[in-house]
Specification:
This protein has 297 residues and is of the alpha+beta class. The chain is built from eight helices and 18 strands. The strands form four sheets. Strands 1-2-3-15-7-17-4-5 form an eight-stranded mixed sheet, with helices on one face. Strands 6-16-8-14 form a four-stranded antiparallel sheet. A four-stranded antiparallel sheet has the order 13-9-10-18. Strand 2, helix 1 (27-39) and strand 3 form a beta-alpha-beta unit. The longest helix has 15 residues, at 218-232. The structure holds succinic acid. Residues 84, 98, 103, 108, 133, 258, 260, 271, 273 line the site of succinic acid.
Length: 297
């Protein structure tokens, strides 16, 4: 039976209906889902009730799961599941990462040479207001770019640095282990990719990690990035998700960015996230390399 889906609010996001993600998927449904995700970078499934194991098993249908460098955010039960939360344990130690602050437009894992571009975020506990997450469609943004900007970004590589991302975090999230530092040197990724299935071109961006453009001086690189970010994040390219407990949102970081609005620090928010190595046959997966001193200049 074909999967039942519907567009959400005329946005680029699609809702999947009738799925029970806590049960193993049959092969036909799994194939249909892989195909669907290749065409629709943001998929929403509502009214789910998942254990961490079930969330991880469902996510693994799309590719191997990554254990991200922020090991302190990992669930103690299923380490492939990360806890995104402002909650603290009995010793006042955060149980996960990313607290309650605003998260600017970003693409998870852009600081890695071979980023795991898939993500699934499951809402367990939500604040009464705030904490809304939005996604921007970077294929539509590329299509809409004025020709002048298309020419300027074509063939260019940006430098993506986790040090910049850390500076935007709050409190203990700013501090990483020596091992995590070793694993996150600045990297280069092309700013434009073609999707392997649809052939559509998309921008690859992350305003929280890009520090410059290879081959451009700092001022010109930063001015071009500012112009691109201001165009690419226009409201017409954005889907804003009003979370309900039990929602699972899956997104492809190869052709989207997302941002989160802040929320009341005294309210509770608990989300569980997986990070998935999506296949290059079905998704844009940037093929990065380490940034040289020259690229950083
Ligand atoms: C994230 O950026 O992965 C987390 C988004 C959120 O907390 O809504």
């Amino acid at each position: 039976m074909p999967l039942e889906t519907r567009p959400i609010e005329n946005s680029f996001a699609r809702e999947l209906l009738g799925l029970r993600l806590w049960e193993p998927l049959d092969d036909v449904t799994a194939d249909q889902l892989r195909e669907l995700w290749a065409h629709h970078p943001v998929l929403v499934v509502r009214r789910q009730a998942l254990s961490e194991r079930e969330l991880a098993d469902f996510s693994a249908v799309f590719g191997p799961l990554e254990r991200v460098v922020r090991t302190e955010w990992a669930s103690a039960v299923v380490p492939e599941v990360g806890l995104i939360s402002n909650l603290k344990d009995g010793q006042a130690k955060p149980i996960g990462g990313l607290g309650d602050g605003e998260l600017q437009w970003h693409s998870d894992q852009s600081h890695m040479t071979n980023p795991a571009t898939g993500a699934a975020l499951y809402a367990v506990e939500l604040p009464p207001e705030g904490g809304t997450t939005s996604w921007v469609d970077l294929s539509a943004a590329y299509t809409g770019l004025p020709d002048r900007l298309k020419r300027l970004v074509e063939g260019k590589h940006a430098v993506f640095s986790y040090v910049k991302r850390l500076a935007g975090y709050q409190g203990v999230d700013r501090v990483i282990s020596a091992e995590a530092q070793r694993k996150t040197p600045p990297v280069l990724h092309p700013l434009v990719h073609a999707h392997p299935v649809t052939g559509r071109k998309a921008l690859y961006l992350d305003s929280t990690t890009t520090v410059g453009i290879e081959g451009m001086d700092a001022a010109s690189g930063s001015a071009l990035l500012d112009e691109i970010y201001s165009f690419a994040t226009r409201s017409e390219f954005v889907y804003r998700h009003d979370w309900q407990v039990g929602d699972v949102v899956m997104w492809d970081n190869g052709s989207t960015m997302h941002r989160r609005e802040p929320f009341d620090p005294t309210a509770r928010r608990l989300m569980k996230r997986t990070t998935i190595f999506l296949s290059r046959e079905r998704h844009i997966v940037p093929d990065g390399c380490l940034a040289t001193e020259q690229a950083m200049a």
